[in-house]
C-alpha cells in the first residue's frame, strides 16, 4: 500500500472540502485509524506526517504502544469501564464517552495519575440500534452530569459515527444534527468544557462531514487499505 500517496490524497480531499465552506485543510485534524494494522505501517504513516492515530480497542493500544513512534493516541471505539485503567496514561483523548458511569471511571483513573483527560461525547444521531452513543435528546443532560461530577475530565466536543450509506450525501443530515448540538453546547461556560473538536467523518463520508462542520476526521481504509479481520486481536 502506498501509504504516503494515500495520505497526500486524503489531505487534498480534506482541503478541498474545507475550502468549500470557507476553511482550510489545516482547520481539520486528520486522525489516521490504525486498528488491525501493523506497527511498521503505523510508523510509516508517522514518518509521512501523521500526528494523531486512532484505535478502537484497548488491547490494540496496549500491545502496540511501546513500539510506535511518538504520536497522539485517540481511543475512538466503545470503551468498557473496567478497561479505562489500561489506557488512561496512554491516550490524548477518548472519543466514545456515552454514559456518566464511564466518565466517572475516567475521572477516577485520571485523578490517580494526576491528569485531566480530554473526552468527546459520542452522539448517535441516527439512533441506530447497533451503534453506541447517546441520543441527541440525552446529550445536554449527560454534559451537565459530567461537568457536575467529573473534575478530572474535560469535555472537548462531540463525536458521531453516521450510518454507512452507499451515497455519503445521505449521511449529511446526521452530521448536521450533531453540528447543531456542537454549536449549542459549546456555549456553556464551565472550566471543564472547552469545545474544540467535532469528530465526524470516515473514509466513505469525510468530505460530507467536513462540509457539515467536522474539524476532526477519522480515516483508516483510505490510508492503509482494507483491514484484515482475520488478524482480530480481541478487545
Ligand atoms: C474503523 C473506524 C474508523 C475508520 O473507518 P474507515 O472506514 O476505515 O476510514 C473511524 N471511526 C471509528 C470509530 C472506527 O471504528
Describe this structure in words.
The chain has 235 residues and is an alpha/beta fold. 38% of the residues lie in helices and 19% in strands. It has helices at 3-20, 39-47, 58-64, 84-87, 100-112, 136-149, 172-185, 206-211, 221-224; strands at residues 29-33, 52-55, 72-75, 93-97, 117-122, 153-160, 193-200, 216-219. Strands 7-6-5-4-3-2-1-8 form an 8-stranded parallel sheet. The chain is globular. It starts with a helix and ends in an 11-residue tail after the last helix. The structure holds pyridoxal-5'-phosphate (PLP). Pyridoxal-5'-phosphate binds at residues 33, 35, 56, 76-77, 161, 202-204, 218-221.
Question: In terms of topology, how is this protein built?
Answer:
Elements: H1 3-20, E1 29-33, H2 39-47, E2 52-55, H3 58-64, E3 72-75, H4 84-87, E4 93-97, H5 100-112, E5 117-122, H6 136-149, E6 153-160, H7 172-185, E7 193-200, H8 206-211, E8 216-219, H9 221-224
Parallel strand pairs: 1-2, 1-8, 2-3, 3-4, 4-5, 5-6, 6-7
The protein binds pyridoxal-5'-phosphate (PLP).
Pyridoxal-5'-phosphate (PLP) is lined by residues 33, 35, 56, 76-77, 161, 202-204, 218-221.
